[in-house]
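Question: I have long wanted to understand how a fold can be written as tokens. Here is the record:
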Amino acid sequence: MFCIARAALLGAFGWGSSCVAFGLISYQAPMDATTWNVEQSPLECRIWQPVPGYGDAVFSKRSGEALEFFLESLQPAWRSGTANLFVAPPAWQSGLSTFSLGTVKSVTGKRPVTVGEGVALRFIRELEQGKVPTVQTSGELATRVGVSAVNFGGAYQSYQNCVGAMFPANYEQLKASVLHYASEQWKPDGKAQARLDLIAGYQKLDAGIRKIFVDGHSDTMGRLGHNWEVSRLRANAVREYLIAKGVPEEMIVMRYWGKSRPIDKRGNRKSSPANRRVVVQMVKA
């Protein structure tokens, strides 16, 4: 394979690519310089390999979400298209065949290729066997990025330990919660308590949470004053539950609205279950 020298490429393209073959720029960490980094937190577990001259090849799992793999490039891609996914043998097993895992879309920007959990797990299985998951974009000057398996095992074990201790939900899943009640009931039931446990637990992990709004509501049946009181009791019971679970009292803003803000406005008994509720919202700065 004909390659243009790295020094020439640096001048021509401004990138630290390893070689160019017939319009294809290839990147892969050399065996003696392959490293894996692991970032561990209850909200995200990430394992990534710096690819010299290109950027990073990243496996990331956020709390409450599926694993994904993506490429993060130093230079933004300026054209969208398709990317071929395949697995190549390592250099010392060049006699083995390369096999395809299909294609995905490539996009502009510094994260040109992202794949979901199915392909990401397949990449991991191949890395465990010493093979080279590879992404190759199309176009006039295509890019091929190979992910080296050297030193993968120890870093992957740390990543797995992180995933095992991960919090089960994320901010997007918990930022707005609606708790429902039976008629004349104001204490949160078991399902509502499980949701509040998640909210309280998440608040302790995310320093960006500034306020938690607790809004109590009643249905539209019955007397006005009684409905105000029921909505207050519901909101206050949620407030006290969160405080008991460790949420700072000053972070909670409690409000109650009686029957003044129904979400089902039919005004009959069929609308009541939807309107008997407490809405809990976490707000970041």
The helical segments are 6-13, 117-128, 152-164, 171-174, 190-205, 224-244, 272-275. Confidence is low (pLDDT under 50) at residues 1-17.
